[in-house]
């Protein structure tokens, strides 16, 4: 069922939004200063291509400790991210969600786009894990 969901997702907006994340990652990588954001873009971009069966969670939930991305510097990084790229990606996901909400079959995909829109606003300090690993979190 996950496979079918992922294939439908890929066709109904996942492909374009994944490319959007990767484009943001390339731009961040080219600027040199944006290298820390580039990694987050590529990880979440891959998640945006095939999201079913995976979940984005805060890294400190997995590791049990704070690191640079989950502390005060991560907050500052997320603010900078939001100003330069986050709201554009979130707007793309919200637009795709609205397009998916038009049909009954697209409602689950629209919900997933809204989840990704929230991630797009503050991706620093997040990681992607399999959904079944979620229950092993601390």
UniProtKB/TrEMBL annotation:
UniProt key word DNA-binding: no
Membrane topology note: Multi-pass membrane protein
GO cellular component, one term: plasma membrane
Transmembrane segments: 7-24, 30-50, 71-88
Pfam family, any one: YccF
Keywords: Cell inner membrane, Cell membrane, Membrane, Transmembrane, Transmembrane helix
Domain Inner membrane component positions: 4-54, 76-126
Subcellular location: Cell inner membrane
PANTHER family: INNER MEMBRANE PROTEIN YCCF
Protein name (record): Inner membrane protein YccF
